[in-house]
Design goal:
By secondary structure, the protein is mainly alpha-helical. 78% of the residues lie in helices and 0% in strands. The chain is globular and about 70 Å long.
Length: 473
């Protein structure tokens, strides 16, 4: 099946709304879980970082398994959508339980947060791998894929705004009504868990019938999932240089992003002294800036090339990060300027960068005769989780190493400098590897068009030529 037609707007919208069900729990965990553990649950930063790392490494392990399961699922309801539906409610429940301030003693509290975090990341994987895989199935058009990811990107930053500004508003108001600070976090998590659940259900319903129907019975002989079957499905992918470039790109970019994301709330609260209302105002500006950045990235990608857009925006972000490390971020205004300069990079990665993965699916189908959206998504998200896990763990260690104390009212200058490093210079250094991976990635608009044409002929049993896209094979 060759899907190159323009998608109906309601399908694009439905797919985009599903990003809310992904981004709300993702950002609650990435932005606030470590901060909650140190400043609400009272755990040391190193322990908080270790808990986050354990959960993310487990998430990484489950990614390939869920990807393989969704590729080989033979349900009459489709390969992807049943996983999305089954995962949504438990994902919402465990997100709330993550932000419950327990007081069982240090060891028992650690055990509680590790267990809930493992469950949370399992259900998150159960939703996001099939959802992300569907992006490659609903269209095979080179530019249309950018369009649907830009639609999803708008919802990413709507979710980011909701999940960053929103909790601070809820917490501020709930605390003023007499509820404890820790319990206010639980209420805030519950509010946004419900929002994420509703958006996920809307997306699940909107994508009915959009899976590639001829693929649902492709693997009828592989119903049993075993470690050997999972390994065999991934081995050819792991030998492919394009997949290696994609894995390294996602791992390094997510690593750099996770370092700054985990430390960003500390930058606002400790270095700049912003209260909850000021932080909520920042996140509102942040989301507006990024939504504008997505539109710019869409134009850049369509007018030039995906790789060129990524290289240009990552270079701008690195330059801004190095400048502000030495200049320092001294005010709310400078924080906004820093965000503006870095926004194009992040927006481009989450939209244009995601379609690099989608375009690789046709290469896999041409070489192996079958589509493996779930397996490819599983490997890519595996690399993201490993990068996030190590980054958050190292962030916690560095914060502890420079003397961060979540119970202290004022942090030392050494602590503030460490926080600034995590938000600026550290991500800039890591991002240099991302640029190299983008340069080496070989798929472009021209050779992708030739590949699709040959793939259509091959699937019809007709003669075809690999001229013009040999290096993709």
């Amino acid at each position: 099946m060759n899907r190159t037609e323009k998608l109906p707007y309601k399908v694009k919208l439905g797919y985009g709304i599903g990003q809310m069900a992904d981004s709300i729990p993702y950002n609650m965990f990435s932005i606030y879980f470590l901060f909650f553990l140190t400043d609400a649950a009272g755990l040391p930063a190193a322990l908080g970082g270790t808990i986050s790392m354990i959960a993310l490494l487990w998430d990484a392990v489950t990614d390939p398994v869920v990807g393989h399961m969704s590729d080989t699922c033979t349900s009459r309801f489709g390969r992807r959508r049943p996983f999305m539906l089954v995962s949504l409610l438990p994902l919402s429940i465990t997100m709330v339980l993550l932000f419950v301030p327990v007081a069982f003693g240090t060891a028992a509290s650690i055990a509680y947060y590790v267990l809930i975090a493992l469950l949370f990341r399992t259900f998150y994987t159960g939703f996001v791998i099939p959802y992300f895989s569907l992006g490659a199935e609903i269209t095979q058009d080179y530019d249309e894929r950018v369009t649907i990811q830009c639609m999803a990107g708008y919802f990413i930053y709507i979710a980011v705004w909701a999940v960053t500004a929103g909790p601070m508003v809820v917490i501020d108001r709930v605390v003023k009504s007499g509820v404890s600070y820790g319990n206010a976090w639980t209420i805030a998590a519950a509010v946004f868990a419900v929002v994420g659940l509703c958006c996920g259900l809307v997306s699940w319903r909107s994508l009915k019938g959009r899976e590639m129907a001829d693929q649902r019975t492709l693997h009828m002989d592989q119903r049993a999932v075993s470690l050997s079957s999972v390994f065999k499905s991934y081995l050819p992918l792991l030998k492919d240089k394009i997949m290696i470039y994609l894995i390294l790109l996602r791992l390094t970019f997510i690593f750099s992003g996770a370092v700054s994301t985990a430390a960003f709330v500390y930058l606002m609260s400790s270095n700049l002294g912003l209260n909850e209302a000021q932080q909520a105002l920042y996140w509102t500006f942040y989301s507006i800036i990024y939504i504008i950045a997505i539109a710019i990235c869409n134009v850049l990608s369509n007018k030039t090339e995906k790789k060129a857009a990524l290289i240009a925006t990552v270079t701008l972000s690195i330059t801004a990060s190095v400048f502000f490390y030495f200049h320092n971020i001294n005010s709310f205004g400078e924080l906004i300027v820093f965000t503006c300069l870095c926004s194009l990079c992040s927006a481009c990665f989450w939209t244009v960068g995601a379609t690099l993965v989608y375009d690789y699916n046709e290469v896999v189908e041409f070489k192996g005769g079958k589509r493996q959206e779930g397996a490819i998504s599983g490997l890519i998200l595996f690399s993201q989780k490993v990068g996030s896990a190590i980054a958050i763990w190292l962030s916690g260690l560095l914060l502890s190493g420079v003397g961060y104390d979540g119970m202290a009212e004022v942090q030392t200058e050494t602590v503030k400098q460490g926080i600034l490093f995590l938000n600026t210079l550290a991500p800039a250094i890591i991002s240099l590897t991302s640029i190299i991976c983008v340069i080496l990635y070989p798929i472009n608009r021209k050779n992708f068009a030739l590949l699709k044409k040959a793939l259509a002929l091959k699937n019809e049993g007709k003669e075809y030529s690999t001229e013009g896209f040999e290096k993709l094979l």
